[in-house]
Fold each of these.
Amino acid sequence: MPDITQTIVEEALAYGRAFTEKGKPAQYIPYLSQVNRDLLGLSIQTTDGRRFSAGDCRVPFTVQSIAKVVALALALRDRGERYLFSGRVGLEPTGDPFNSIIRLETDKKPYNPFINAGAIAVVGAIKGRSGAEKFRRLLAYFRRLCGSDTIDLCQEAYVSERETGDKNRALAYHLKATRMLEGDVTEDLDVYFRMCSLFVTAEDIAHLALVLANRGVDPASGEQLMEEAHARIIRALMLTCGMYDGSGEFAVKVGYPAKSGVGGGIAATLVDRMGIGVFGPALDARGNSAAGIAVMEYLSKAMDIRLF
Ligand code: GLU
């Protein structure tokens, strides 16, 4: 299995560059529609402490759905596997778009924690006396998992997200009506909007993926940031549900667990080896970074790291 080198990282970025024109930034959130689609950055961090970067790996972008990974990790820590997966959210892929409401009517429990309905249910399970306290706890954990204590809200994205979030409101109120969400819906929604609007870089999400790859331990500090069993659950869900309704194709073409966000980020995790973070805001029809997928495909072939 060829090892990662700076040359491979730069070649992957050069290969991905042609794909920035093959999509466009998310249009349904006004803030995102303004982002420069030519940006492209890549960061790779290995479990034995090496770091490789190329391109716009320090340019901040909104984390969007990749935050669902952190929310899930915190809810698992707060409530445990049994509580979360027996009553709140399932473990199955849907094949539906990320914000779909259709199955909630018949199945009540959202299919998995990475569709919007599932992530909102997961936020509902995070401990805290108020939305503000939940968000404080989530942000603190987010910073530790990303290895950066400066991560914060992008206020403009948050406002934009909140103003256009009616579909998410519909999902949340539906969950409330069926008692899958028990707290204050407006506060849980606000936590959801805020967590999607956090500003991160490709380096930050590579670090998050690295902790997952390293079975929950931050290799830099040696600290166990999440239980090994929880890291395994999250990696499995990333593989089956992490790329929206493109997860199956991604597993075939790329072949390792990854989570994307409509901000253009993709965090991918290779157990015992490395975390990969990519940022390219032009999205394909399913809401995944077009250039980001191309970069991941290149890396997968160059290092022969497909699981299958
Ligand atoms: N904030 C976005 C939404 O709720 C996140 C979606 C995503 O990245 O998939 O629509």
Amino acid sequence: MLTGCCEWPKEFAERYREKGCWRGETFGEMLRERAEKHGDRIALTSGDTYVSYAVLDNKVDRLAAGLRSLGIKQEDRVVLQLPNVVEFFEVCFALFRIGALPVFALPSHRSSEISYFCEFAEATAYIISDKQLGFDYRKLARKVKEKVPTLQHVIVVGEEEEFIGIHDLYMNPVNQPQIQSNDVAFLQLSGGTTGLSKLIPRTHDDYIYSLRTSAEICKLDKDSVYLAVLPVAHNYPLSSPGVLGTLYAGGRIVLASGGSPDEAFSLIEKERVTITALVPPLAMVWLDAVASRNNDLSSLQVLQVGGAKFSAEVAKRIRPTFNCTLQQVFGMAEGLVNYTRLDDSEEIIIHTQGRPMSEFDEIRVVDEKDHDVGPGQVGGLLTRGPYTIRGYYKAEEHNAKSFTSDGFYRTGDLVKVNEQGYLIVEGRDKDQINRGGEKVAAEEVENHLLAHSAVHDVAIVSMPDDYLGERTCAFVIARGQAPTVSDLKRFLRNRGIAAYKIPDRIEFIKSFPQTGVGKVSKKELRKVIAEKLNSTVQS
Ligand code: AMP
Ligand code: DBH
């Protein structure tokens, strides 16, 4: 296995194989098999482009040859930052066939994040689109190349300028190495709690198991049509069951450039979409948009909502508005995914975040001392299972804190389990803000702000928000003359961080409230800002 990754202990691996979870299949083979079985069927739709399984499979082989010709080889890490385009799938599967590992960056990441991924993963290549939503990724690539001299290749989908154009890389197929199913297939990103995102190594065996199980739970088959509105590199639309689960089932993926009802509703109508996945804020926008459109959305069978807590009040409106089944999804890139089942009662679907997808998922709910809490009580969620990692990539010290000695992952989520075994998310004990599904690690942004000469200290907390659920508020203790809010925001933008990490609000404060042991009390700060928001709403 790739150096820096933690394997499952032998007895667990044996059990997961014996029980038929891990079946020895790789992504490369999976696509080949689907192409052999459903060759002429459409795998992917993007605008007016329709790509069959056979064509996708062949393009993957040709691109794999081109990538190999650049010297990209087994175990190389390749930072992949593409929006929802057909090439995302070609590149992804080409890398899988070579045995090189995509690192799944998001389109919203900027130079700070991308440089870190490239450096930390010692990436040999970085793959981008030319321009997207007015942003020029080649400019970003120039910056990253300057910071990371070891990065050898920048490959561009579109106008390549001084870089390598992907169109030049479709070559005659060559033999590719034999890939082992227990090898790491790619590195996914964590939302991050302490500082920067951690990298999550997922194997072919474990991830394909999660796709297969997810596809079964969502009843996907070759007639399913999955609409991807969230960025497909994210674990949720990638795998729960997402685009890869759809390919697993031999269905069809429809790519949208974003979640606007204008685009998405037209695609649902035109392509007869059967299932799609949203985060809570988007679900709210869609609910409100239905009244003012007359698209035929009758093909939609399942609307998934996950990534952040979906309020029961809003959840109730899904079935009457869309005449389809709501499915709540509570998952994490580290592994464990919970689903409400399609035939669950409305009560369960509206009020819970689902139950683990696999009978082999182990769940514990514990207090601060890792003792199990009583039935129905709230506690920290720990989990272990056939598709939950045993450690982050190259993070020994952090792993000692994030995993128990017997291999349970500390999710940082506070949950309770009801009598039927369904989980209800009650909060969080990790230093993270969940901005409508986008995770912000407080410490990462605090560190950026601390680099400003007029910032003495800073603490970032969540504040309640009707639309996103939570937004970020930075409490700043100034050094000398206080900077302005716009100074600080500009400063952060110039440091090249993703826009969703820029604090929504900045409050200046003289000193921080403290806990009994003299640490900054974020709990108190959350109260301060919540009360302030409350009083401004009322006045
Ligand atoms: P990440 O570690 O970045 O993959 O984010 C996973 C985290 O997102 C989980 O640990 C939860 O904190 C949060 N999350 C995902 N889905 C839900 C959901 N349906 N309800 C509440 N929180 C969720
Ligand atoms: O938020 C997540 O990371 C997430 C949500 C739903 C996830 O990774 C998943 C399903 O697989």
